[in-house]
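Consortium newsletter contribution from the modelling node. Members have asked for a concrete example of what our holo predictions look like. Here is one, prepared for the adenosine monophosphate complex that several groups have been discussing at recent meetings.
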Amino acid sequence: MYTCGPTVYDYPHIGHGRKYIMDDILRRVLEQIEGYEVNHVQNVTDVGHLVSDADEGEDKLEKGAKKSGKSVWDVARFFESEFQKDMDTLNILKPTTVCRATDHIPEQIALVQKLVAKGYAYDTPEAVYFDVYTFHDYTKLFGQKLEEKLVKSRDEVREGNYKKHPADFAVWFKRIGRFENHTMHWDSPWGDGFPGWHIECSAMSIKYLGETIDIHTGGIDHLATHHPNEIAQSEAATGKQFVKFWIHHAFLMIDGAKMSKSKDNFYRISDVENKGFSPMDLRYFYLTAHYRKTLNFTWGALEGSRYARQKLINEITVLENQLKTEKRTALSNEKLQKVNAFSSQIKAHLCDDLKIPQALATFWDALKSNIPSADKLDLIYDFDTIFGLRLREDTGKQFQKISDIPDSVKLLVSEREKLRAEKRWDESDVIRLKIESLGYLIEDTKTGSNLILNSKKSLK
Ligand code: AMP
Ligand code: ZN
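And here is the predicted structure:
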């Protein structure tokens, strides 16, 4: 499995968290349910690539270096380590191999040489370009016609002075013209220069995983340009199918908008922690949506996930306590079937294109069912090796009890109870909002009693 890794010129954000957690769950499912041994390779784009997926713009790493006043090498190493720290915080398994583009320049040069020798790439005074018309199936992944690519997405293609065709893309840039002062550069058969962005993934994927790989993942933004380019380079060079299964992850949006620093809606994992959430609350939040669906982040939605995860932890505490007094007894046939049915259903959802929200729903059904405590606990611990919510580690930690809740909030709760008893829903809703604005959540249970858990008061 090959995963397109980060471009290390800035801090990772919670959008990256979503993408890499989905890869992580995929890997855990393959390993723990399907029984595969997963060789997981992830690159680090430390060579910088131009600001757009096409060949235009300023180099991202150089931009980062200018901003911070450090060398491009320092910037890359610093943000690579920040990325790894955040991935660890989110309980994401480390890939089997993490490979940097800058450590694989000879492999990239060799691949470009092969493409030139086979007539798929051509040398020009400014760059070596891949000739998209020589590759029969260039647009097969995205289904876009080359003509459409030209007309509809002009931003994506740039009329390089020496390009045969505007959609041709650079596999090697020369250190001349607008790249005269490019900081990272290497000797090559085409003179001093640096690799085009797409070539690193083809070169490292082939090196570590062979010419045909089973799974390749990346964000949805890679569907139109980066991945078609990877396929073209790899298949042109090897004559073999590059990837059997492509996985494209949808984006995380913030309050319905794309995350961006200028909109002040750019959040890092540490921002989430600083508001008092556990990174595992964020992980739970990511599990609430299918990876091919856009997920909208709001602080309220994160609060809901925190609440759900705390409920799980509370449940574990109750079950663990019960088991101190109850003995584990042999299961009746009927109960055994029920436990197995829940377990198979959860697995079936996960193995069906990673239907994680459905798997979580069945998981909750199992916890609400009448299967014995010991089996519930086994189920929680078993599936948490896939969900990765660190439930066992966090059990026993002190969460706020009802008795710790201020009198003013308790008063509002009882007032609301009265209104609910009188079916005065609108008024009771107003009070619920008031309670929430004070930083508390209310759960209406079947018996009508309310359970309150503390939430952070610093929410936006
Ligand atoms: P980058 O560091 O920009 O090269 O991105 C690394 C990976 O994260 C790519 O596969 C992107 O598609 C993905 N990514 C970037 N932003 C988001 C986002 N907001 N939501 C989900 N994935 C993202
Ligand atoms: Zn890639």
